[in-house]
Amino acid sequence: MNLKQMAGIEAAKYVEDGMIVGLGTGSTAKFMVDEVGRRIKEEGLSITGVTTSKETERQAQSLGIPLKSIDDVPYVDLTIDGADEISADFQGTKGGGAALLFEKIVATYSKKCIWIVDESKMVEKLGKFPLPVEVVPYGSQQLLHLFEKKGYSPVLRTAADDSTVITDGGHYIIDLHLQKIEDPIALGTYLDQLVGVVEHGLFLDVVTTVIVGGENGPKTIEVSR
Ligand code: 5RP
User: Fold this and answer.
1) For residue 77, what are the contacts with CB-CB under 8 A and spacing of at least 6?
2) Does 82 show up as a binding residue in the annotation?
3) Nearby residues of 66 by Cβ (< 8 Å), 6 or more positions away
4) How far is residue 179's CA from residue 183's CA, in Å, rounded to a whole number?
5) Measured in angstroms, how far is the CA atom of residue 109 from the centroid of ligand 1?
6) How far is the CA of 81 from the centre of ligand 1 (A)?
7) Ligand 1 centroid distance, CA of 70 (Å)
8) How far is CA 106 from the centre of its chain?
9) Is the pTM of this model over 0.70?
């Protein structure tokens, strides 16, 4: 079995009747959403889903998963989402699929967060995978210059047809090619205070459980916070 699929199916076991479940975005989360859909259909599981992107919304609707907006639920019991990198101290980066803003909003109001990854995503330090920063289009060139000056090797994200990627929130993505993030908290604090930055892909102190798909089966790690 594909390692992403293995992690996705394992994580779907944590979904219980009556839960409000945050449904993540990306190729790993897609397997989890498929499995939740299967459980609803075949096991009569009853949940309410809160999606983190239009892409996941379309998938969940096609599977008949009942959905509500994050603004129409009191909280989220459990969010299951993918990640781009997870460091040895369980900090993470997300946003490879450009859904980081909605993913972070849903994660923020979730009692528990499970990240599902294949073993290649487990790293010592974050930074090899480019760090996405979601920005308002107006002034985005100024932010690109600023990040260039800081030595962050920024690249405005474009699609296969060379058009600028527009997020579900109507923003651009600037990917920072940092190679190594020595101090994720300091970098996150710096990015948080920049005018025009809507959100960044550093998800710090968020995850409560990591499920890693590996050659010997899924490995579940409980993260104490
Ligand atoms: C989307 C994300 C994804 O969860 C992350 O990029 C992992 O994606 P994949 O499971 O396809 O490797 O953060 O914004």
Assistant:
1) 19, 20, 21, 110, 111, 112
2) yes
3) 47, 48, 49
4) 13
5) 19
6) 8
7) 20
8) 10
9) yes
Tell me the one-letter amino acid at 158: T
For residue 28 the two structure tokens come to 């790993």
Which residues are tagged catalytic? 103
Question: How far are the Cα atoms of 29, 143, 163, 164 from residue 172, in angstroms, in the given order?
Answer: 23, 11, 11, 7
Give average pLDDT by consecutive 10-residue segment, the chain, 225 residues. 96 98 98 98 98 98 98 98 98 98 98 98 98 98 98 98 98 98 98 98 98 97 91
Most ligand 1 atoms within 8 A of CB, residue of 23, 94, 123 to mutate: 94
The full set of domains in the chain, from first to last, is 3-122+204-222 (3.40.50.1360), 131-200 (3.30.70.260)
